[in-house]
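Thread: Newbie trying to understand structure tokens

Hi all, I'm a second-year student working on a class project, and my supervisor (Dr. K.) asked me to get a predicted structure for one chain before our next meeting. I've only ever worked with sequences, so writing a 3D structure as a token string is new to me. If someone could post the tokens and maybe explain what I'm looking at, I'd be very grateful. Here's the chain:
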Amino acid sequence: MNIKEDIRPISYIKANAAEILAQVNESHRPVYVTQNGEAKAVLLDTESYEKMKKALGLLKLLAQGERDIIDGKVLSQEDFFSVMDRGFDNIRP
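---
Reply by user tm_fold:
Sure, no problem. This is what the structure looks like when written as tokens:
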């Protein structure tokens, strides 16, 4: 992380928006926006943002799966496929 490039005050962002957007899209590093010396926002390129959203979604699924295991909400492989077969049998014409 290059502090000089990755942390910018809001006044700089306002005056140099096109430059900052080009930097973010080229480097794929976030820019931290400060206001009155405090971090207030983060600018990300769209590709990095979408990757982050997908990663968070996967982490949520993993956490839910772990919770289901702890709570005993599991099926054996045989039972799972049996349930799936019955469900698909109802769909077929």
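A couple of things are worth pointing out once you decode it. Strands lie at 7-9, 31-35, 38-43. The chain has five helices and three strands. Feel free to ask follow-ups in this thread.
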